[in-house]
Write a structure and sequence with these properties.
By secondary structure, the chain is an alpha/beta fold. It has a domain of 275 residues. Helices cover 22% and strands 37% of the residues. It has a ten-stranded mixed sheet with strand order 2-1-5-8-10-12-14-16-18-20. Strand 1 and strand 2 form a beta hairpin. Helix 7 packs across helix 8. The longest helix has 17 residues. It is globular. 45% of the residues are buried.
Length: 438
Amino acid sequence: MTTQNQDILIPEITPELKRGPQWLQDKRNSSKESYNNTPIPRRGLHLWRYTDPTTFVVDKAEVADATFRTDLDNVIESELALLQNGHSSAFVLDKAGRDITFNLADNLVKDGIVISKLSDAVETHSELVNKHLYSQVNSESGKFEAMNSALWNDGIFIYIPDGKSVAQPIHLLRESGMDNSAQFPRLLVVVGKNSEVTIIDEYSGGSETQSDNMSLTNSAVEIFGDNDSRTRYISLQRNSEGAKVYLAHRAKAQQNATVLTVPLAFGAAVSKQNFGVTLNGEGADSKMYGLLFGGGHQHYDNHTLHHHTVGKTTSDINFKVVLKDKANSAYTGLIKIENKAKTCEAYQENRNLLLNRGCKAETIPELEILNEDVICSHGATIGPLDPEMIFFLKCRGINQTEATRMIVSGFVATTLKQVPDDLKEKIAEFVTKRLEDI
């Protein structure tokens, strides 16, 4: 066993390790052992070259009780109104994995669609959960994935049976606790053959100021799209200014399945997110359109992966970053195409817009192509606002501030087109607020 600082080990008496049937307890305990035996990643090695891994360690590996922001009741009331008016199919409030409440449209139950606690699904849909849980995000994925795999208290399970479509988005609100809290959200989604769903996975709350007692959110998401399924997953990270966020996301697309992933990041003091899709059947297609907007001293570290395991699959990544003040962003994107995965098409683009001196962006596109029968390209840009565009707009009577806003709006427009209508207004508000001090 590797020698570790005792303060960061998960102890044997941790109550989360005893949750669920025996097979799940065994999984939790093996994840605990993996976490305890795995050294903290060395700073500077590949995906940890820009972020200090000790940021995401829980002191003494304790899960603190959480208190929540005072305006949460107003948020809940607004979301329930959207559900009642038919703008969403479900609203799920997850308070640090300790209290999860479900509000579902009547037609979901009639269609056999399941949206429940993961702890309940372990019993009621044991075959599905046993097959899929931990198969993509687990102790072998990394030290902090092992931490989530051991310490998640309760999570959310979504199952769309074969041939069913959910017309309006399912909205998940994962609320983090305030200072000195740690939460480990877990989401498992299984989308059946020829089925369709849109999921808005929103992360909010957490510590409001940076201190020694900042909140930590360590989240794991696993999505499975069966043959001919259509899955849209929108991740909205808008945690408070003092939060630390770590997210591991993996999706798998089978034959002719489509997966649209839209990572949106606006909040937290430190945010490290890893989004990946495996194309596992001929005709599978994945599109990933990300948008990050940082200000102040925010630190973002994002990774994307498209893994083509079979031939005749397609993927496209377009990840956009807007920074101002002293914010910084690091992006690493990998396209991996296996030797037997012939006639694949894969594209990757990362564009970074710097609104002032002092902010910083890094971009590392990576290709691992193991056969020559592919069409594959990647591109990356980092640069300030184009002064000629500013000059052009000012010549037409538009002031500097409005000109900047117009340029940024055009820059992010293609990403916002992928966001459900009810979310576009909220996202536009975040962008506007970031531009107020320009």
